[in-house]
Amino acid sequence: MSWQISSGSTTVTFPVNPQNITDENPIVETDFQVDSQQSVVVSEGLDVRTLTLKGFFYVSGQTKTNLDTNFVSPLLSLNRQQVTLTCPTPRYNGGWLLIVKSVEEKSEGNLQRYTYTLVLKQGAAFVVL
Description:
This protein has one helix and nine strands; from the N terminus they run E-E-E-E-E-E-H-E-E-E. It has a seven-stranded antiparallel β-sheet with strand order 2-1-7-8-9-6-3, with helices on one face. The chain has a two-stranded antiparallel ribbon with strand order 4-5. It has one domain. The protein is elongated. By secondary structure, it is mainly beta.
């Protein structure tokens, strides 16, 4: 199973799985000092879950134009959209807000590729203005 990001009629299927995946699921907390005692920590609940994906788009024999047409442009069209992530790791599957943090062109001889950093945010609801 490959990684896919989709919304509506647009689907981007990653030709290579992300190389680096960071899953942050922080909590909202406050703490206060009690006279001559240890601090009291109050956990207020979960903060926004963030999934950061870093990797590259590469397909043997494809030009940058093909990579741009098949992967980069469709991905950029989903920027700031609510998307569905589908991948081999079930805990990542579901609805996310996609932020395309960066896409960088790379050429090393005949090797044509794009590197990317994507940030996906998950919450109870999304409001995109």
